[in-house]
UniProtKB/TrEMBL annotation:
Name the record gives this protein: Nicotiana lesion-inducing like
Annotated TM spans: 33-57, 77-98
Keyword Membrane: yes
Keywords, ordered alphabetically: Membrane, Transmembrane, Transmembrane helix
Length: 112
């Protein structure tokens, strides 16, 4: 909190870590279950999770290139970046398929 406040120049309100952890578990778990069932909403939840967690958890930019932590963190960062791109690809394909489907015409019933 102090680090964020010093860089942004504003006071950040106090946030309980258990709420942060619970929300990340929710985003990953619920988003993953919905994504398994081909839900766009699930993909958006996973995108949000990756966008928030990746730069915080895998901060390779704070280490020297020669240190062993750099390679591990950079590898995980690149993996999450690839997953982010795959989710964007999924959403793009899903939206393009929905646009290509012809709209159903109301069928006229024949009456004698």
């Amino acid at each position: 909190m102090k680090h964020v406040s010093s860089h942004l120049g504003i006071v950040v309100p106090h946030i309980e870590m258990k709420h942060v952890i619970a929300s990340t578990i929710y985003l990953k778990g619920f988003g993953g279950i919905l994504f398994i069932f081909s839900s766009s909403f699930g993909a958006y939840l996973l995108l949000l999770y990756l966008a928030l967690i990746t730069p915080v958890m895998y901060d390779f930019y704070n280490y020297e290139v020669e240190k062993p932590e750099f390679a591990q963190l950079f590898s995980k960062f690149a993996q999450n970046l690839a997953l982010f791109g795959a989710l964007l690809f999924f959403l793009g394909i899903k939206n393009s398929i929905l646009r290509r489907q012809p709209k159903k015409k109301a069928s006229k019933s024949k009456t004698n």
